[in-house]
Amino acid sequence: MMQFRPFSATVRPAGSAAIIDLHGEINVAAEAALHTAYADAIQSQPGRLLLNFGDVDYMNSTGIALIVGLLAQARKAHLPLVTYGLSAHYQEIFKITRLADFMGMVGDEAAALAG
User: Fold this and answer.
1) pLDDT at 2
2) Any idea what the Cα angle at residue 85 is, between residues 84 and 86, rounded to 5°?
3) I need a labelling partner for 97 at 20 to 30 A (CA). Which of 9, 62, 66, 71 fits?
4) What do you get for the CA distance between the two ends of the chain, in Å?
């Protein structure tokens, strides 16, 4: 059985981009931490926002809805959003739900920064 890891998010600058490193499970309990991380990330007025899913164990439909909400905020601020580190499963979900149409999806941080 998988160990449940509560969600956390850390923000770090990378050149003109801001990276939000996502950790654990993205579900309803992640909402406050996700909003706080977004607010922290945009304070530096980055040119792009990168979401690192490399350490995400699980994301349910509510978690996906939270990512959609983040995307909507970024689009309203004319801030390009790029994701990386998504498992093949979540890449497929992002494509099926058309989320991928509105954000960049790349394999790793180097590609996201080169973006």
Assistant:
1) 59
2) 95
3) 9
4) 37
